[in-house]
Amino acid sequence: MLLVNALYFKGAWEDKFYEPATNKQDFYVSENRKVQVEMMRLTEDKSYYEDQEVQVLELGYLESQVSMMIILPKVKNGLQNVLQGMDGRKLSRLEN
């Protein structure tokens, strides 16, 4: 397991995103600032976890044991609080 907040990895998704469903939506870069970005959509059964703080989605790569885990805080700008409370036990729970 590798924990990073930014990484470049060129790989093909296990399930491709449906390009015509991509559209511009708001993305908050800070509490008061948002930008319009292209948001991809996918309707598939995926590993998903949710609790009071976060929503977690795991996306696999084609023909690989590598996957990407996306951790989305439920509170806007709540990433710092989620990361401060993160330890190996909690990360393992999110992964399973």
UniProtKB/TrEMBL annotation:
Which cellular component terms (GO) are annotated to the entry? extracellular space
InterPro entries linked to this entry = Serpin_dom (IPR023796), Serpin_fam (IPR000215), Serpin_sf (IPR036186), Serpin_sf_1 (IPR042178), Serpin_sf_2 (IPR042185)
Q: Which domain of life is it from?
A: Eukaryota
> What positions does the domain Serpin occupy?
1-93
GO molecular-function terms, A-Z: serine-type endopeptidase inhibitor activity
Which Pfam families does this entry report, sorted A to Z?
Serpin
SUPFAM superfamilies recorded for this chain?
A: Serpins (SSF56574)
Q: So what family is this one in?
A: Belongs to the serpin family.
| Name of the protein | Serpin domain-containing protein
Please name the source species: Romanomermis culicivorax (Nematode worm)
